Amino acid sequence: QVRLVESGGGSVEPGGSLSLSCSTPEYTSGSNVVGWFRQAPGKEREGVAAIYRETDVPRYADSVKGRFTISQSNNKYTVYLQMDNLKPEDTAIYYCAATAFTYTPLQDSKYKDWGQGTQVTVSS
Fold first, then answer.
1. pLDDT tens across 37-91, in order?
2. Exposure string over 11-37, b if 16+ CB within 10 A, otherwise e
């Protein structure tokens, strides 16, 4: 099991930015893919971004392309989600998750290890 800890949520006005972090105690084969997901009240959980940590290749949902950037630290222990030009519809609890490998990194059913989530609120 991979332990994941998110941080960095908060409140921001539309057009603002937030950066989320997902920390893992170590980089293991069980966490080769890390994804960021979000769930708004009354809605299903959706994948927003993911990264293949061995190759540094990112994947994004269409709804966040050009606004969100996923990256990782040099030692691969932390995965970041930089969120720019935030919109009210980005309001949700954001979770990071890890899995060994998947061809569909934005599909939440492919992940077995999850963090506790962090709230992001975009409102004027």
1. 999 999 999 999 999 999 999 999 999 999 999 999 998 899 999 999 999 999 9
2. ebeeeeebebbbebeebeebbbbbbbb
